[in-house]
Amino acid sequence: MKLGNLSGRLALLTPAGAIDVEKASNGRFASDPQGVFSRWQEFRDWAGGAPRGDTKPYDESDLRCPVPRPTQVFGIGLNYRAHAAEAGLPIPERPPTFTKFPTCLTGPFDDVLLPSPFVDWEVELVAVIGERAFHVGENDAWKHVAALTVGQDISERIVQWGNGGQFSLGKSFPGFGPLGPWLVTPDEVKNPDDLELGCRIAGEVMQTSRTSDMIFSVPRLIAELSAILPLLPGDIIFTGTPEGVGSVRKPPRFLQPGELIESWIEGIGTIRNRMVSAA
Ligand code: ZN
Predict the structure, then answer these.
(1) pLDDT for the residue numbered 279
(2) Where are the domain boundaries for CATH 3.90.850.10 in the chain?
(3) Alpha helix stretches (DSSP H) within 182-241
(4) Residues contacting residue 32 through CB under 8 Å, at least 6 positions apart
(5) If you measure from the C-alpha of residue 170 to the centroid of ligand 1, how many angstroms do you get, rounded to a whole number?
(6) Which CATH topology does 73-277 take?
(7) CA of 183 to the centre of ligand 1 (A)
């Protein structure tokens, strides 16, 4: 199942077009794309037999952030060996976890304002929580994932490293969390534990890897995080980026006004975000 935020309204996305969830369910499910996760199982059951009569073609430029207001946003650092190596940092024994404050989230095709000349890219698989997860074991963890999507963990490197070692502010400027273009349920992809992902800047491929190279898999992350706190319906986890970021290149390479980041994951889709000068 593919699910999107079409101009602010929750929609099922099918090969024939979009189905407006509120209208097709006669109001049983609200139009707010964030509301659906608290009734995820009920929604999935309904969506399986949703009326197909109201399917309408849609324009991808109308797709907005598919998870607009999560309660918690988790970011994972150093989750690919080759990325830890390029950063000159040891392989972590526990997932290094920070937050991206939710106001940084934006749509799959939105422009991103550059607050400085030190902004970097990080393509990432993003997992969206369906059923609340607290003290969940690795073997049960996928059951708590509603969907997967593509994310960019855009990062201002000076603020990231300059605030007492706390990453969260440097990763939370407005627009620093593009998501989308839609949500895909894990059963829609061939193997949710092994997906190719990558990103291209101004046409040049900068990152390519597979999620099977993660140090902490999606189930392991859910086990580790939920050992400490509950993961709530609609929360999201940015699962870490592979090698190929700009700041550790020689010489360093940062995002310039006008450049387009294209970020993709196999079986999910591609998001495209244009960098815009703040001046
Ligand atoms: Zn990241």
Answers:
(1) 72
(2) 73-277
(3) 218-226
(4) 10
(5) 11
(6) Fumarylacetoacetate hydrolase; domain 2 (3.90.850)
(7) 19
